[in-house]
Inverse folding.
């Protein structure tokens, strides 16, 4: 069927297939993998995502439903003691990025128990670029590439029911306590009511290198200035019926009222903290340094926004920021490249959101 703007729309109900498994998101897909230690290629992982999520030519293979955003980062200078990266010199760095839902279809309604994501591109004055891809949950359900592919296979809907095979899913969860821990965290952690009032986490560890060559293992997060409010998950169905794009419309309503801000917090690892496993959280007592403020002041649909043909590859890093020994970092880099290459060879699709052109005002619900 067509929407009010003349675009073909897929019925929203199809978007739920394979998204909710016992209250835990199955389309995690913020990472994927390649080569060692599992000898899987980026193409193998993207194949697994496509088999799980179905075919959506022209869209990203994960986190398909999203919107571009534009703003800047104001450094307060506190990061210079940790890293020689130019982004931490006091002053302003231009930013663009993308808010998205970690779902497997671009037509999912917003009321699903899925992680929200924020990806950013910061371009320093010297031309160096820092890209990051963050989720609103602080850890990942699996720690290896092979387990990520196995997760996609275990949660893939089967033709008979449109749901995962119960025995296969149960076997996977029984063998992966880290995935059970992630599911418990997703269920117990309040879901932010807005993209604007949620925190976002790097998930993986990185290394900051200062001007003297000293290296410090870190993770980072963005803490919102907007007051937190939780969504009532029991009302997801009602919210979807009222407006299946309610999260995106809320973001744009807020941006119409004024810029939205987050503080960039750098968490410093201590001896014994794991840097190679994204399923393991560090103690809450670790030192955090507020290094500046992210300011988002406008949004645009992907067909004409700056984020459309960009991979938010976490290994695109400026001097002063380096990868840790977490194998999922090279995994993400390889799979993102494959995803971009495939969708670049397909007819470009308009944004899955129901609004033409740039978006200075709230998007209207689909009819």
């Amino acid at each position: 069927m067509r929407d009010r703007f003349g675009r073909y729309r897929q019925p929203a109900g199809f978007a739920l297939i394979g998204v909710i498994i016992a209250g835990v998101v199955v389309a995690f897909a913020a990472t994927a993998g390649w080569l060692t230690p599992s000898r899987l290629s980026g193409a193998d992982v993207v194949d697994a995502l496509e088999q799980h999520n179905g075919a959506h030519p022209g869209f990203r293979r994960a986190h398909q439903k999203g919107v571009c955003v534009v703003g800047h980062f104001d450094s307060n200078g506190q990061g210079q003691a940790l890293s020689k990266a130019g982004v931490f010199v006091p002053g302003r760095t231009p930013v663009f990025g993308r808010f998205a839902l970690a779902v497997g279809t671009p037509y999912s309604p917003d009321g699903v128990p899925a992680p929200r994501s924020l990806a950013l591109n910061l371009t320093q004055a010297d031309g160096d670029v820092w890209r990051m891809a963050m989720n609103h949950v602080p850890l990942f359900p699996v720690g290896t590439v092979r387990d990520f592919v196995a997760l996609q296979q275990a949660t893939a809907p089967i033709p008979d029911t449109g749901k995962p095979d119960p025995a296969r899913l149960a076997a996977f969860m029984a063998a992966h306590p880290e995935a059970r821990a992630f599911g418990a965290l997703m269920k117990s952690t309040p879901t932010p009511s807005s993209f604007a009032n949620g925190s976002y986490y790097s998930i993986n560890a990185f290394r900051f290198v200062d001007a003297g060559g000293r290296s410090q293992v870190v993770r980072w997060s963005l803490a919102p200035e907007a007051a937190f409010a939780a969504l009532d998950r029991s009302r997801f169905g009602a919210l979807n019926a009222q407006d299946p794009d309610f999260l995106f419309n809320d973001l744009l309503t807020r941006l119409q009222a004024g810029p939205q801000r987050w503080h960039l917090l750098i968490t410093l690892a201590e001896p014994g903290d794991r840097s190679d496993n994204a399923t393991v959280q560090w103690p809450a007592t670790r030192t955090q340094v507020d290094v500046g403020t992210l300011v988002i002041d406008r949004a645009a649909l992907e067909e004409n926004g700056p984020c459309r043909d960009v991979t938010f590859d976490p290994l695109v890093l400026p001097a002063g920021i380096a990868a840790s020994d977490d194998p999922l970092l090279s995994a993400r880099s390889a799979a993102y490249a494959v995803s971009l290459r495939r969708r670049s060879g397909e007819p470009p699709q308009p944004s899955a959101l129901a609004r033409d052109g740039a978006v200075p005002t709230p998007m209207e619900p689909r009819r």
